[in-house]
Fold this sequence. Notes:
Belongs to the NUF2 family. The chain has helices at residues 11-22, 26-30, 33-36, 42-57, 61-64, 83-95, 107-110, 114-170, 177-243, 248-303, 320-465.
Amino acid sequence: METMTFPRYSPDDIISYLRSHILEGAEARNLVKGDVFGNPRLEVLHLIYLRILQRVCKIQLEHAYMMPLNVDIMYPQIYEGFLPVCNLYIHLERLLPMCRISDFQIADVLNPKTKRTVRFLSGILNFVNFMEFQREVYLELQLTYKSAMEKIQHLKTVNQEATLKLEKLNTVPVEHEAEIKQLTGDIRELEQLLRQDYRRKQTALQEVTSQKKTDIAEKTQKLNEWKVSITALKEEQEQLKSKIVESPEEAKNCNELMKETIKKLKRSMQEITEKYESYRDAVEVLPSCQVELQLYQKKMEIQGENVERLASVSSEARNLENQLESAQEELKKSKKDEMSLKRMVTAKHEKLTTAQIRLKKICEDLEQRKSTVFEHFSKVQEKRGAVYDKVMAICKEIKQKKNNIEQLKDDAEKKTAKAKEINLILKAVLDKCHESLLKAVKTSAASRAEKLDEIRRGLLSIQSSG
Length: 466
């Protein structure tokens, strides 16, 4: 027990701690080192123990003077003076094992010694410091947990409000159901009309494209024929140049005519290529227009459900363009509302994620603190386990010695019983001897008296005869 893990405080430190933390008022002012150590005053030491029990175990002063109700005592007045000491010993015996002190005895209360009181008080003060430190840590954790729970509740309420708002926005009021049904019917009619117009335009475009393709094919054939003819003419020109010698003026005129014809052919070729490219662009644009129209139809189908208020649509079919523009404006407004709501929801989700991350960090910090505390306690318990093993070995030896003492006591009791039996037998024998001796004395006295009577009678007879 001399190698305990808690620190040993000096008597001066213990006295200063008791004055500042445990005792109050006149008790702290009147406390002196000689009242606890050296030749201690039992009243002061008992008062210090009671104040420690009040601070740690929340025991009141009345409990120290109360008789246990589950015990039947004939004369409780006898125990009144011993009750405070006995209750103090019982409560300290429960407290000190938590302070890693296991050899506390009632003699430490009735007849305390300085070394043992120093060790007991240092262990108690170490436990009190540890308890206060852990209480502060627990209060900090409780405050952080409360703040986190309040934040979570606030975020839950905000989410509930947002969900209610979204439900209100998604749900159609009863007043506008008829209008929305009319609008959806009108939108469907408009979609059917747009599809019919699209089909008509598509068929017309297909016919135009087919005609233009045929024209392009014919013109390409003509171009090819012209190219073949030009090549043939060039060959003939070269042949003729080699055969016929013309005048330079005629050659110049022919060359100018040929150049003009070539320019005309080039212009026609450029016009044909431009028309071909325009037709090709128109043909290529057709599938993209179809895709855009399909996407527009899908958007109209998806967003037609979320439209709340649309302008009144006239039944006239002539003002389709105006109706489409108004519908597009309201769709843009609904898109803006949806984007604002989505931004609000995303912001709230981000707040929730940040709160969850903070909670996770707090939980991780708590787990780390717990792990460090558990590691510290495991190390302390390992050290104390070795001490406990030593103490258990000493206790075993003490138990063995106690058993030997009990055996010796049993043997002594048996021997005393045998001696008592022998004494009883000897007493009985002595009594019998005394009785026999008394009888012998009585018989001898009677025989002597008879003999004396006979002698006296003989003497009297002799005297009478003489």
